[in-house]
Amino acid sequence: MDHTDFTSRFAIDPKTAARFSTAELRENFLLPPLFVPGRIQLHYTNYDRMIVGGAMPTSAPLALETIKPAGTDALLARRELIAVNIGGAGIVTVDGEALRADTRDMVYAGMGSSVTFQSLAAEQPAKFYLLSAPAHVRHPHKHIGIAAAKRVDLGSQATSNERSIFQFIHPEGARTCQLVVGMTTLAAGSVWNTMPCHVHDRRMEAYLYFDLPEKARVLHLMGEPDETRHLIVKNEEAILSPGWSIHSGAGTSSYAFIWAMAGDNVDYTDVDLVAIEDLK
User: Would you kindly state where each structural domain of the chain is located, as residue ranges?
Assistant: First the structure.
């Protein structure tokens, strides 16, 4: 049974983005709802060929299916995948091996894998945030719990950006071809993420904001450092960030977000920093 919906997103250059209205910015960079009961949503982007999506199984498992833009009989024939669960407890089955994924756990599936998603309880469904990029070699599938991620504490209460960064993918952990994924949680009273900001034209990035109260919002900053734009984002919405764009923001309350990159390297420190006083 077909349970997959998909769209394609063309790449937008900075000069074009600078002329966009708010509606056009949202149409091109803000993704529609990723978590639809009983469905898989996939958005194929022309930013490093990253696929960003979501799977929300309820009473029945959902098998990962191919989509036309991938051009292959199986979606992971030439791709790798990371699924991060932000919902109830679930299971990701990779090549017949069932891997339990509690909330904030991650599962990596290498090139050529078959993958199925399942919730342990339909009334508390799992919500798997999906990220896929082209791969050149098959790496072993792996489960990484939030407790096993590499934790880095940054910021301070004085600058409203006290936060904890959890690196799921790092040189000492699971191997990938080009996917880099992590999670950031902000301390109570802190609202700023990724400030001072940066760009990295060698890698695109996607942000999924979550754990945000229903009536709270994040003011997500994007655009070139001297030509910034903003988008108002609610809970469980995802933003595409081209390599030329900053990706930063402030919320009306504390929140968490998952950041994911694909591109030329997996070096976290390879960024071009932007001083706050240079932003326009």
Answer: 4-278
